[in-house]
Write a structure and sequence with these properties.
Shape of chain A: elongated
CATH topology of the largest domain in chain B: MetI-like fold
Structural class of chain A: mainly alpha
CATH class of the largest domain in chain B: Mainly Alpha
Structural class of chain B: mainly alpha
Radius of gyration of chain A: 25 Å
CATH topology of the largest domain in chain A: MetI-like fold
Order of helices and strands of chain A: HHHHHHHHHHH
Largest sheet of chain B: none
Number of domains of chain B: 2
CATH superfamily of the largest domain in chain A: MetI-like
Number of helices of chain A: 11
CATH architecture of the largest domain in chain B: Orthogonal Bundle
Shape of chain B: flat
CATH architecture of the largest domain in chain A: Orthogonal Bundle
Number of strands of chain B: 0
Number of helices of chain B: 12
Strand content of chain B: under 5%
Oligomer: heterodimer
Strand content of chain A: under 5%
CATH class of the largest domain in chain A: Mainly Alpha
Number of domains of chain A: 2
Distance between the termini of chain A: 22 Å
CATH superfamily of the largest domain in chain B: MetI-like
Helix content of chain B: over 70%
């Protein structure tokens, strides 16, 4: 309770500010409508009218929730109006891309840790790539992949993969290097072979770093999939763009909330795996 | 075919030099540490050029680096205009507003541990969300010009900076705070003379994360609607014209802008937090 109460207070404050902003931003439309009909509305009449407009400037929280529930639970998952349909398309691309990107990232990290030439030539570029908006490559990759006849799923997965790739490389290199000289020397005195040292010391020691960068990586993967979908017919990104073309603000907000929920779920899944793994390994804090 | 062979030869030669450099005592000098990645980068470019020429890759799929460089040189005024529109007007103004707002918010909630306990988890949570998705809404509210891009950037940089600053304000040790108390320092005196300087490594960590996010936000927001100028607009428009050399030129600009931006923040950090162990080595 001691930890929950402040969080709930902050959330309640956000909702309150949102409602206030809804009234502030939507009232122009109400007053315009009244002026056109040659009637006048009092403040008490105006407030409810700002809450259920069809295309509000800012939809009220309950409108967004209603739309979210309607388009996830109230619509058949196979329908193109269903957010479950679009969400699944995005999520599958994100997951596939994340798995590919993480696997390749771990492989490169192992190469960097064991090969000094690779370390000195590749690692600076991997670190530098994190300051560069590599997401700018996404639309171009889409075009290239299309000319090769790749399916939308593969195209998006490739973009998701390279966005999650670099954080994992950098994190895993740090993790695989985290055992100190004393520990490596100890294994040496046990006459441990290279693979033994890797599987019994370096790999277990790298796990906390792996999960930390996996959380960054999956969030980046999701952003990559969403941005890659801007040029695609279906998916949450496509839904956002369609909403912005047709001025469907409630639809945009509902899609946005689903993006947020998916991101939160993905990070929570990784956090749960992390807790389970680290507890089994006796590393949980 | 000769191009491919030359390119592969250069690649193998570059790798051999790097392997020798990495094994030699030179690898511990500053020059060696810079030379190895530079050689690697140059050989990648030569390999790319050779493969594109030798295999006669269609420029609609992958233009050669020389074609990109030529396009870059030809369209400097366009690229500069796009850079000003996206990086300076969109990203930089949003970055300044967002970071200042986050910094002031962190100081405002500093006196209330209750608000901090509420804001920190919420801020950490929001920092992991795909905030880029708010771009269509901001474009609707603030129009196609750079104001909407700046608004997206403000939202994107706010929470990472807020969370880091709040964490930083807790970084001073109890002993140090007690010392300030024994000198009967007021809240503001101890804030400005002890806790803010101690918070700076954390603040700059947030600012560095935000510098990357700012450019991403401004670029992606342009995919949702922009004036006929800007890096995101140019990338999207060039896809329609299959002008991939232009896209690569814009990506080069984005890479340079991102590195310079990050480098500038890192340089200021070095000046401000000269006392921190990580800067003194």
């Amino acid at each position: 309770m001691n930890r929950l109460l402040p969080i709930l207070t902050v959330l309640a404050a956000i909702v309150a500010i949102w409602y206030a902003a809804t009234v502030m931003m939507n009232r122009t439309w109400v007053y315009d409508q009244a002026a056109r009909a040659d009637t006048s509305v009092s403040f008490a009449q105006m407030v409810p009218l700002t809450m259920d407009q069809e295309r509000p400037v800012l939809p009220a929280p309950h409108q967004v929730m209603t739309e979210l529930v309607k388009s996830t639970l109230g619509t058949a998952p196979t329908s193109k109006r269903s957010l479950v349909y679009h969400g699944w398309i995005t999520l599958s691309a994100t997951a596939l891309g994340f798995v590919i990107g993480t696997a390749l990232g771990c492989l490169l990290a192992i190469g960097i840790v064991y090969n000094r030439a690779m370390d000195m030539s590749v690692l600076p570029w991997a670190i530098a790539s994190q300051m560069v908006p590599i997401i700018a490559l996404a639309p171009m990759l889409t075009v290239i992949m299309n000319t090769f006849g790749a399916t939308p799923l593969v195209t998006k997965a490739v973009i998701s993969a390279y966005l999650s790739f670099f954080p994992v490389v950098v994190g895993m290199v740090k993790g695989l290097r985290s055992p100190d000289t004393m520990q490596l020397d100890l294994l040496h005195t046990y006459a441990a072979t290279g693979p033994q040292a890797f599987f019994k010391l370096r790999l277990p020691a790298s796990m906390p770093f792996f999960f930390a960068s996996a959380k960054v990586g999956i969030a980046a993967s999701l952003v990559g999939a969403i941005v890659a979908e801007l040029n695609q017919p279906a998916g949450l990104g496509a839904r956002l763009l369609q909403g912005s073309y047709y001025g469907q603000t409630v639809q945009i907000w509902a899609t946005l909330f689903l993006c947020a929920i998916l991101a939160a779920l993905a990070v929570m899944v990784i956090a749960a795996v992390e807790r389970g793994t680290l507890t089994r390994m006796g590393m949980a804090r | 075919m000769i191009w491919v062979l030359v390119a592969l030869g250069v690649w193998a030669g570059g790798w051999w030099i790097n392997a020798r450099l990495a094994a030699s005592p030179l690898s511990r000098t500053r020059g060696g540490r810079i030379a190895v990645p530079v050689i690697f980068g140059v050989t990648v470019l030569i390999l790319w050029e050779g493969l594109v020429r030798g295999l006669e890759v269609n420029p609609v799929i992958l233009p050669s680096p020389s074609a990109v460089a030529a396009r870059f040189g030809d369209s400097l005024p366009i690229l500069w205009g796009d850079f000003v529109q996206t990086a300076l007007k969109g990203a930089l103004s949003g970055y300044a507003i967002g970071c200042a707002a986050a910094f002031l918010t962190a100081i405002a909630v500093d006196r209330s541990p209750f608000l901090q306990r509420g804001l920190l988890p919420v801020g950490n949570f929001v920092a992991a969300l795909p905030i880029v998705g708010t771009a269509p809404i901001m474009v609707m509210w603030y129009g196609f010009d750079w104001h909407s891009k700046a608004a997206v950037v403000v939202l994107m940089v706010f929470f990472p900076v807020l969370v880091n600053t709040v964490a930083g304000l807790k970084a001073s040790e109890a002993m140090q705070r007690d010392l300030m108390a024994t000198w009967s320092a007021s809240y503001w005196q101890s804030l400005f003379k002890l806790r803010l300087p101690a918070a700076m490594p954390f603040v700059f960590n947030g600012l560095k994360i935000a510098s990357t996010l700012a450019l991403i936000g401004a670029l992606v927001a342009e995919f949702f609607g922009s004036p006929t100028e800007g890096m995101g607009f140019r990338i999207n428009a060039s896809i329609g014209q299959l002008a991939l050399d232009m896209i690569w030129a814009e990506i080069t600009v984005a890479a340079i802008a991102g590195s310079v931006f990050y480098g500038a923040v890192a340089l200021i950090e070095k000046r401000v937090t000269f006392w921190h162990p990580s800067q003194r080595s």
